[in-house]
Amino acid sequence: MTAPAPAPERILQRLDWHVIRRLDGLLQGDYRTLFYGNGVDFADLREYQPGDDVRYIDWNVTARMDAPYVRQYTEDREITAWFLLDLSPSVDFGTVGDDRAKRTVLIEFVTTLARLLTRHGNRVGAVLYGGRVDRTIPARGGRNQVLHLIAELERQPRLASSPMTDLTALIEAAERTIKRRSLVFVVSDFISAPGWERPLHLLARRHEVVAVRLFDPREFELPDVGPAIVEDAETGEQVYVDTHDPGIRRRFADAGRQREATLAAAFARSGADSVALSTDEDLVHAIIRMTTVRRRRRAHG
Questions:
Q1: pLDDT value, residue 44
Q2: Does residue 143 contact residue 106 with C-beta atoms inside 8 Å?
Q3: Which residue, among 244, 245, 278, 248, has the nearest Cα to 260 in the 3D structure?
Q4: Which of the residues 68, 98, 126, 200 could staple to 270 if both were Cys, CB 3.0 to 4.6 A apart?
Q5: Model confidence over 206-225: pLDDT tens digits?
Q6: pLDDT tens digits for 117-159?
Q7: Which of 84, 43, 124, 50 has its CA nearest to residue 214?
Q8: What is the pLDDT of residue 43?
């Protein structure tokens, strides 16, 4: 009798079959718009044109020429990609089904992109955060690196509660760790103490950054189920609420919409691309959406 494959191998095989094969068909091998943005290596300077990304203005040359100039980059054939992964307690929230917690979606997303990247000769690494920066996985290539990454994510403990998540610590750890210009995915629900916006902006000035925001649809809608105990997923604090009260449900929804607007503005200011990843969305569709976002950004930048 053949022994079952280890869990990381089973996860990778399932995603190879159900997700990556479909992406291959839909993208037809054109992963450039997914993984390449405005290039890696400096190539030349040219005069600024309306619509250019102001992040690439060379201020020294601009001062000498008395006119704005922007740096142009050539695309590197090989990419180093990093995943900054928020594994704090709120990421274990999921109501669409226990197997669709935000953590599950995070693991599937990271595995899929890591597999696509390493399959094309690129390297991937990760920084893991669970209440604090727990470990850094150095960037390497190959299928074994993907399996190692899955194993580390599966091994990461699920915390019942912790101090309020502070994404600043995660982003600043990445700033210290990642020396060469890279493609960086920040995967989090962004339920965090304030202050992470500036570090994200600084990271996006040095690297190609994509903020991947995990969410569950029920985080924006309180169901009418009568008296209930609502628990803060980060701290474990519990509050009694009467969900029959339409005013409470309305305030809950309003708070969700306000948080969405605040996050959208923060991402826009940071200069990072951003994409939302829902627990009830097909992963293939979500990745195709990310491709579309990056293609549009590339066309305007």
A1: 62
A2: no
A3: 278
A4: 200
A5: 898 999 999 988 877 766 56
A6: 998 889 999 999 988 898 999 999 999 999 999 999 999 887 6
A7: 84
A8: 53
The 10 Å Cβ neighbour count of residue 252 is 16
Tokens of 5: 């494959």
| Tokens linked to 31 | 């992963």
In angstroms, the CA 88 to CA 169 distance is 13
Point out which residues pair with 69 in neighbouring strands.
Answer: 47
Phi, psi of 53 (to 5 degrees): -75, 120
CATH of domain 7-34+78-300: 3.40.50.410
User: With contact defined as beta carbons under 8 Å apart, do 173 and 147 qualify?
Assistant: no
Q: How far, in Å, are 24, 71, 105, 132, 223 from residue 286 at the CA level?
A: 14, 31, 11, 28, 26
For 40: left if phi > 0, alpha if psi spans -120 to 50, otherwise beta; the answer is alpha
CATH 3.40.50.410 residue ranges for the chain: 7-34+78-300
Integer Cα distance of 62 and 66 in angstroms: 6
